[in-house]
Design brief:
Length: about 325
Amino acid sequence: MGGKVSCTLGEIKNRADFMIYWGGNPAECHPRHFTKYTIMQKGKFLPTGRKARTMVLVDIRETPSAKAADIFIQVRPGKDFELITALRAVVKGQRVDEKLLTETGVSIEQARDLAERMKQARFGVLFFGMGLSMTRGKHMNSAAILALAAEMNAFTKFVAMPMRGHGNVTGSDMVLRWSTGYPFGINLCRGYPRFNPGEFSTVDLLVRGDVDAALILGADPGATMPQPGIDHLARIPTIVLDPKVTHTSRLARVHITTAATGVSAPGTVYRMDEIPLPLRPALKSPYPTDEEIVRRIREAVERMPAWTPKANGHVAMM
């Protein structure tokens, strides 16, 4: 099974009466999410707003988002996959080893109560953040939460949606999906796309030292990646395209200042529900756009004589 059962934020605003935030802290990371699209909004089919909605927060500790939740479930660090798997079994009425479930920090009673509430919902949503997708288990955690949402549709309407991080992450995923068939973790060294998260993901390539050069657009891995990955970026030729100086810029051999997309450069950004939004610049900039710089680099590379890459060489693009 692959893919995800999803919808738009507008549908969530108008229909969702039950929502789970797993491994995310929207109160601080997405401060307008509650008020614009989810628990606080009065929807077409939920005219009473907050009174008609139930919010569950699943995280390793209480965060400011817990104050907005009706139910807070504390899971032990690194045990998200086990809890999701047990919850999938409880939803289907299968036997669950209570001792193994207790190791996640959640009792069988809590799991059964949550499963029953999910089944009773008219329209449920599973929002999952980087506390799930970037911790132990990584893409397996994401696959498990997507599978749970899909399986819930045997009982009621349920969807899943990632709470994306900084920048136009969804836009990157969308472009890669329609151009290669895969959203991330793609290797093109053989002349065709190969997909294998954990092997071809940028952070894994950098930590293993498999990358010979890096071109970084609109991201700051020097501020967010594990230290071995940051150290490797400092050792290799790194080029950064960014409107401002970042942590990664200080590690790079070359920093090219570009116009800020949406402020002084046109473009298209994808909202976290994969809806494209056109951006019209309000100001003019003396700097070139990301698109113009990448086009110039490509044209310069095409003019270069043919070369043979190293057997294990990789160029990371972020």
